[in-house]
Specification:
Herpes Virus-1, 7-stranded antiparallel beta sheet
């Protein structure tokens, strides 16, 4: 700091009082003040004799000055020193500016990239949104069409039944009216005949209008009403359930893939761990190391959904397995090994079969698990089928034939083995 101040003071001492710059060819007057030769010469031209010092106003008899080589040397040194410092300062400034410019360019490039990526994401979201809206509209349109057709059919059936009953009653009413006229005519004829008899006139019994007697028309109005006063929404829902695409697939367990300690129900929709190993034939389809089993039907196109009842089970593995997955060795159930699974441990610890396991925060326990396989999109999704809450989905699902996968897992010591059951309806 002191050096900087001394340099500044020296520069001031070597500055011309006329042009306020460093001396150029400095000369000294008799009063010992210094000026640039050109500056003092020009100044004295503008004044009348006697000439004087521009700084102290001392007058001189003549225009006399002498070159001061010492001051000239100092000026050269100061000018050289200032020039070197300026160069260094400019170099530092230039580097700082260059670094700052590069930094700003880098920031700009990153912003340009992010803007491009955001625009691509926006376009992608719009495309996906349009596709999803089309799918949602199509699915609801199918339901609307089904409900509309059911309503039209039911209304037409109702109108037909009503028309048949009304037409029957109208015909019966017309017949009754005709019969009534005949009876009234017979009554009048008989009255006239009775009057003749009272007057002691012998008369023959008149010929009366005779028709077969009409019976009361039996129409069960209560049955007509009760047929329509029914759990209509539930009835229609049961019919609509058969048309859902995809609806719960009527899967069955494939006993040829079952681990020997698994026991199947007669209808092949329920499986439970057994203490007794069953006799089995050795084949590449069968699981031998883990208590796993597949469904009989595999999928490699379309979309498919199925539900599994896991009530009271404290541990299980569910999902999808490639047809080519290794079933003879004990492997981790993850996509790298051909498995896309969701698992439960200790009754409340849910996790996804990834490397490593991905824990899930499931707030409410589930009694039914829904599995959705979209072969066209290569996606596997898991739902809490009690409320259809999405639990997890794999975006990179199987790209070849895959089978529904199930494992009731080995039961804990002292605990009763619990069965898992494939559901064919949501009830």
């Amino acid at each position: 700091m002191a050096s900087s101040k001394s340099k500044l003071s020296l520069r001031e001492d070597l500055t011309c009082a006329i042009c306020f710059e460093l001396f150029k060819d400095p000369v000294m007057l008799d009063c010992m003040h210094h000026f640039c030769r050109t500056c003092i010469t020009s100044y004295w031209r503008t004044v009348r004799s006697p000439v004087s010092c521009p700084q102290c106003r001392k007058q001189f008899p003549s225009k006399h000055f002498q070159t001061n080589y010492l001051v000239a040397g100092l000026v050269d040194k100061v000018r050289a020193s200032s020039s070197s410092a300026s160069v260094k300062y400019l170099e530092v400034c230039t580097k700082q500016l260059k670094d700052c410019l590069e930094s700003q360019r880098s920031v700009k490039d990153s912003y340009v990239k992010m803007i491009h990526e955001d625009k691509e994401k926006m376009d992608k979201i719009k495309r996906i949104g349009a596709d999803l809206q089309s799918r949602v509209h199509s699915d609801f349109q199918a339901l609307h069409n089904f409900l509309r057709a059911e309503e039209e059919n039911m209304m037409e059936e109702l109108r037909r039944e009503q028309e048949e009953m009304l037409s029957g009653l109208e015909r019966h009413l017309e017949a009754l009216q005709v019969a009534m006229r005949d009876v009234e005519q017979n009554i009048n004829t008989l009255r006239q005949t009775a009057s003749s008899v009272q007057q002691s006139v012998l008369v023959e019994l008149p010929e009366l209008n005779s028709r077969p007697p009409l019976q009361e028309l039996q129409i069960n109005i209560n049955a007509f009403r009760s047929k329509r006063i029914a759990p209509l929404q539930y009835i229609i829902w049961r019919k609509m359930f058969q048309h859902l695409k995809p609806g719960p697939a009527p899967l069955k367990f494939d006993e040829d893939t079952a681990h020997p300690s698994l026991q199947l129900s007669r209808n092949k929709t329920q499986v439970v761990e057994s203490d007794n190993m069953t006799n089995y034939t050795c084949n590449t389809k069968r699981f031998l190391q883990c208590v796993n089993i597949l469904a009989t039907e595999g999928f490699q196109s379309g979309s498919h959904y199925w539900e599994v009842d896991v009530t009271n089970n404290r541990k299980w593995d569910l999902g999808v397995a490639l047809e080519s997955a290794n079933r003879q060795a004990r492997v981790k159930l993850c996509p790298e090994n051909g498995y896309w699974t969701l698992r439960l441990r200790n009754g409340n610890q849910y996790s996804v079969g990834t490397q490593p396991w991905t824990p899930l925060n499931v707030m409410t326990s589930t009694s039914r698990i829904g599995v959705f396989l979209d072969c066209e999109e290569s996606k596997v999704s898991f739902y809490n089928a009690d409320n259809m809450e999405l639990l997890y989905f794999f975006s990179g699902g199987p790209r070849e034939k895959a089978f529904p996968f199930f494992s009731p897992c080995l039961s804990e010591r002292g605990q009763k083995a619990q069965a898992i059951c494939i559901l064919h309806s949501p009830l």
